[in-house]
Amino acid sequence: MISANMFIRCNSRRFMPSQVDEEAHQLSYLQKHMANILTLLADSVDGEGDDSMVLTMETFEHLGFLMHFSEGTPLSQAASFFANSDPDMPAAPVPAALVHDWILQHIASTLEFMAEKSSAKENSLQNASDPDVTMSDAVTNTRIHSSSPTGTSAPNNPGYYRNTTFVEGFSRTSVVKQASDMKGHSIKVLNCHDSVIYILAPLKYATVYGSSDTTIVLGAIGKVVKVEHCERVQIIAASKRICIANCRECTFYLGVNHQPLIVGDNHKLQVAPFNTYYPQLGEHLAQVGVDPNVNKWDQPFVLGVVDPHDSLSHPAGVSDVQAESATCLDPDLFTNFLIPSWFEPQGPTKYNPFTLPEVYWASQRKKHASLEDIQKNIRELEIDDNRKKELACALHAQFKDWLYASGNIRQLYCLQGE
User: Fold this and answer.
1) What is the mean pLDDT of each run of 10 residues along the chain (418 residues)?
2) DSSP 3-state of 4
């Protein structure tokens, strides 16, 4: 549940929905747009009406990016028309209309169940600090739940929380999670503020939700990273995919094998190439199947429009408009991010495994040359000890001002061993 002090800290933010509200909202979005989504995926065949568009099992699996039944179970195995197919004999395509009806039926039943569960919770005398009802309460293995862009829900099975690592509610601190700290293959970073968070481990899924003024490093994510309802965060992620929803003034330093997906109500997003490394990064990328030779960071794909009737993401009275995309970060503003070496002291990775585009390389060379010139001029200055102390104090003051202005003061605390 979102705490009161969160609203005080983020008074510039419009109402932020709870995770269960956002789950219901995203399921409603899928309900509204599923026909168009299936039209994009379907193949045309000879026939009339509803039978002229079909989906193969392989194409149907693409919907797993938007929804799933239980982690680790292929979506096709949850659908009666593809379940138990012979692996040596490709399953016959099925009409898109049949798939559409099946999905809508499960979305409707899940939304109804969520509403009943939420109503029961409101009428109970549970402690106010209890967590919101999530999709893990609302679904069973035979009910569908949204996987994008919220992804904060879970299958209704007791092992879920034992198999997911949570980093939640941190403020003005540094957090480090390495492979030995992980439970299962998922990480969820929830409601963190003014912090630096290092996730230096090979994982399948990562979710960042409701955070602000925070830098988050996601070392190697084999399936998808989801970032939702965040403000002024810097996400540094090496992943196969990333989905961004309802974020403001965020910068994403990406090494991604597929186009970044942007949905919902976003404003002033920036994307840039991946900008860091740690000694085990190359091994972690190989373990989860992320190819550092393929990086589509600069090809964001915007899905859908902003709905004026959606009270969670847009003020009323505004016509449907295309959801806002992201712009590429100015190369002059691009900097490498240093991960303290003692987090992962040994490993073969000595540099960023993702190739930096030439325009960003040129900017880095220019900055290095300027720095060398400054260092040379300072060394050659013929001044007495008192003037040297004055110069050092001036440089330190300017550096401190830059740390605060850029938000890097938190990482400095981390480097000092906080």
Assistant:
1) 38 50 76 82 70 80 70 67 64 82 82 72 49 33 38 43 83 90 90 94 94 95 94 96 94 96 92 95 95 95 65 47 84 89 73 93 80 71 75 73 59 46
2) helix
For the chain, the first-to-last Cα distance in angstroms comes to: 28
The DSSP string of 120-173 is HHHHS---TTSPPP-HHHH--TTS-EE-SS------S-TTTGGGEEEEES-BSS
Contact 160, 182 (CB under 8 A): no
Provide the 3-class DSSP secondary structure of residue 78.
helix
Q: Is 373 exposed, middle or buried (0-12, 13-18, 19+ CB in 10 A)?
A: exposed
d(CA 114, CA 264): 22
Does the model's pTM come out above 0.85?
no
| Spatial distance between the Cα atoms of 347 and 329, rounded to a whole number of angstroms | 30
User: Quick one: which H or E segment has residue 262?
Assistant: strand 261-263
Query: Residue 84 is which amino acid?
Result: N
CB 114 within 8 A of CB 24: yes
Q: At what angle do helices 96-123 and 19-41 cross, to 10 degrees?
A: 180
Q: Which residues pair with residue 268 across a beta bridge?
A: none
